[in-house]
Amino acid sequence: RVHPKFLHSNATSHKWALGAFAELFDNAFDEVASGATYVNVDMLENKKAGNRMLLIEDNGGGMDPEKMRQCMSLGYSAKSKLANTIGQYGNGFKTSTMRLGADVIVFSRCPGKDGKSSTQSIGLLSYTFLRSTGKEDIVVPMLDYERRDSEWSKLGRSSLIDWDKNVKTIVQWSPFSSEEDLLRQFDLMNDRGTRIIIYNLWEDDQGMLELDFDSDPHDIQLRGVNRDEKSIKMASQFPNSRHFLTYKHSLRSYVSILYLRIPPGFRIILRGTDVEHHNVVNDMMQTEQITYRPQYGADSYSKDSNMSAVVVIGFVKDAKHHVDVQGFNVYHKNRLIKPFWRIWNAAGSDGRGVIGVLEANFVEPAHDKQGFE
């Protein structure tokens, strides 16, 4: 049994909201193996409540009813079983969605494999519902349908009474007004994929949404401490330092450097416009490649060939303007874990303008994938 208050405390493992987005991108990225060709992030209007919601969708393999339950129930993570996956709809799904908003509704359609019929499922993980109804357990109402011949029909795990109860709960606590209205979401996907809608987005102490949809119609930005007007102004002046100056508050800037390599033909779409993939190496001049091997003790190097990383190091092209840009982008299995990690803090200007990129697969990322264990 898991009490609903854990949903909230669980999500605080993400201090930084953009780090929560990154985990949702990871899940979509892992769907490339199932044929996903895009991940799309957008803002939607909640007609029922008159406020704004977040959409994250991909056209990957979707989740069957079983996988959907694993994804949305607490304490489950399949990630450890699968090599080479960075996301996996496991625990990261819960911590990241709950970090961005109080409630999430998921629509997923999965083509039938091995002679099984295709399915589609709807699940609601709603902190508002659990809190308002005083639940002691995390209850996740779900609806499953299967395709028989050319019709979608209810796939009931129990009685019709339970089905109707789930429909009623989902309709009452979601942005949708009827079962027909819910099912219309599936018209927006082809034969497979997952559509995640996060709503009742968190607000700051002033009652403003933490996410800023207005500063740039093609971006999602953060208000508050991550936003530094001086850096934003400098970014337009020094284009080669733009990512360093803006990744903390701009999702578009952060996602463009989130992966070292993008699968061929895969698109990341943010609010209607493709995100242009960016390799920080292109911002450098006088670059050098160094093979880094961790040292153990006084003079023993690791003999294990996997225990090494190729570091590309150089000066940022704007270095002559003495812009205070420095640090290393450290990736793990293609995914950025430490953006512009400052290796030293010098009192003077030592190290200013020096940036580097490396992929360190021999260390394990921390739980929130924003640091190493």
TrEMBL record:
Keywords: ATP-binding, Chromatin regulator, Coiled coil, DNA damage, DNA repair, Endonuclease, Hydrolase, Nuclease, Nucleotide-binding, Nucleus, RNA-binding, RNA-mediated gene silencing
Domain Morc S5, residue spans: 249-373
InterPro entries: HATPase_C_sf (IPR036890), MORC_ATPase (IPR045261), Morc_S5 (IPR041006)
GO aspect biological process, one term: DNA repair
GO CC terms of this entry: nucleus
Gene Ontology MF annotations: ATP binding; ATP hydrolysis activity; endonuclease activity; RNA binding
Superkingdom of the organism of origin: Eukaryota
Cofactor field: Mn(2+); Mg(2+)
Protein location: Nucleus
UniProt-listed SUPFAM superfamilies: ATPase domain of HSP90 chaperone/DNA topoisomerase II/histidine kinase
Keyword hit for Hydrolase: yes
Family from the record: Belongs to the MORC ATPase protein family.
Name of the featured protein: MORC family CW-type zinc finger protein 4
Source species taxonomy: Eukaryota, Viridiplantae, Streptophyta, Embryophyta, Tracheophyta
